[in-house]
Amino acid sequence: MYFTGIPGKIGEMKIRIPNSAFLGNINGFFSTLDLNNSDFLEITSHPEWVNIHPIVLCIIGILGKSVPSDKIDCKPITAQSGHYLKRMKLFEFIGINPEVKEIKEHEQAGRFIPLTQIKNSKDLDYFLKELVPLLHFDKDPKHVKSIQHIFSELIRNVLEHSKATEGAVVCAQYFSKTNKISIGVADMGIGLKKSLSVSYTVKDELEAIKLALTPGITGTTSKPGGSAQNAGFGLFLIKSIAYIGGNFFNIMSGDKMYKLLQKQKGSYKLNGNPFDDRHSVLSIPFWNGVAVGVDISLDKTTEFTSLLSTIYKFYSAEVKGQKKARYKKPKFT
Amino acid sequence: MKNLNKKTLKILTYAGTFAENKDVARHLRERYVFPYLIKGYCIVFDYSGVENTTQSFTHAVISESIRKFGPSVIDKFEFKNCNPEVKKIISIVVEYMQGNMEKPVS
């Protein structure tokens, strides 16, 4: 037994906010994450610097919200960049008010979406309208459509499949140095394995991730092509958008995280099987729901219509090519 | 002269400039698309004013008709005033649906 600030407590859930946790180096964050006791939560952070991806903020936000605020022991945030956590409304979101080092210099308005909870379709409608001005996309129409698409597909997945009572938790940040938008969407629902097991035999979490990323697979039916309401194509499309732009895409559920690695130069081949992509798999502390992180590099990512052309070509070659079939085309006027 | 065999669905009226709400898609499918097809009408999906859509929304509006009535139903659809992104998404969904049917058009 040890004293940690809250009397009578034996052990606790522990979050350590590292100096850096992005999609490429998120392993360090998970290696210190301890989810063993959900009655108490201790939050500590790197003393000098904290710089984290929105998916990490979503995870911390969800874990923090699951514990009563008087059972959270958040150590003072001494890092110079600690105000970032405040600006992303992490502490407000989980209902605590820790000591955070104040900054004196003028802070730019920034392009970001703070931690936001989306519980239903009405919340999502509102969020999608706010998205454009918050990320200053009114001045960047080239990329707005793919970002809208990604948010809509990810959040609707949560609302339709996760059975998460608290809905989806989302946030996003534009990083000017790298000229990219980082997106995080997470839930604490039933997870991919349970969701897909309704229609498929799923042996483990990794197979669940594979199925979820395979075009045509949805938990709502085992019929090829999905059900009337679900195509099973959304995550594949998002992974493809990330891949074509040479960006990271991470998805975690249960005890596994799939990490799509940046493509090698000159490689544009899309794969229906996510394990044929350049990727790595990470074992993580068990996450009940699903969390997805995507980076969209605004330098490398082409317009949405070009991305869709590449995906369309892939699909034609992959599916139609195999069946030697001639398909009807939609009539546009 | 008004074509009596055609029914027009103005997507903007139901789904707004970013057509992504799948509850709306379900409503369009069940309230209009299926009944119109059953009555033998052709359907004009008018996307004027729609700036963006998702594959999920498009799938939810049209895919079940392709499965239910067969790929020939695609000839009864007309997609009007679509911008390049919307056209691509509709093309992906139409291709995808036929690719996943047991007996594609050959």
Could you describe the 3D structure shown?
The complex is a heterodimer of chains A (333) and B (106). Chain A has 333 residues and is of the alpha/beta class. Chain A has helices at residues 27-32, 54-65, 83-87, 90-94, 121-134, 141-162, 191-197, 205-213, 234-244, 304-323; strands at 13-17, 41-45, 72-74, 112-118, 168-175, 180-186, 249-260, 279-297. A 5-stranded antiparallel beta sheet of chain A has the order 4-5-6-8-7, with helices on both faces. The radius of gyration of chain A is 20 Å and the shape is globular. Chain A starts with 12 loop residues before the first strand and ends in a 10-residue tail after the last helix. By secondary structure, chain B is of the alpha/beta class. Chain B has 4 helices and 5 strands. In chain B, the strands form 2 sheets. In chain B, strands 1-3-5 form a 3-stranded parallel beta sheet. Chain B has a two-stranded parallel sheet with strand order 2-4.
Give a quick set of tags describing it:
heterodimer, A: about 325 residues, alpha/beta, 5-stranded antiparallel beta sheet, 8 strands, about 35% helix, globular, B: about 110 residues, 3-stranded parallel beta sheet, two-stranded parallel ribbon, 4 helices, about 15% strand
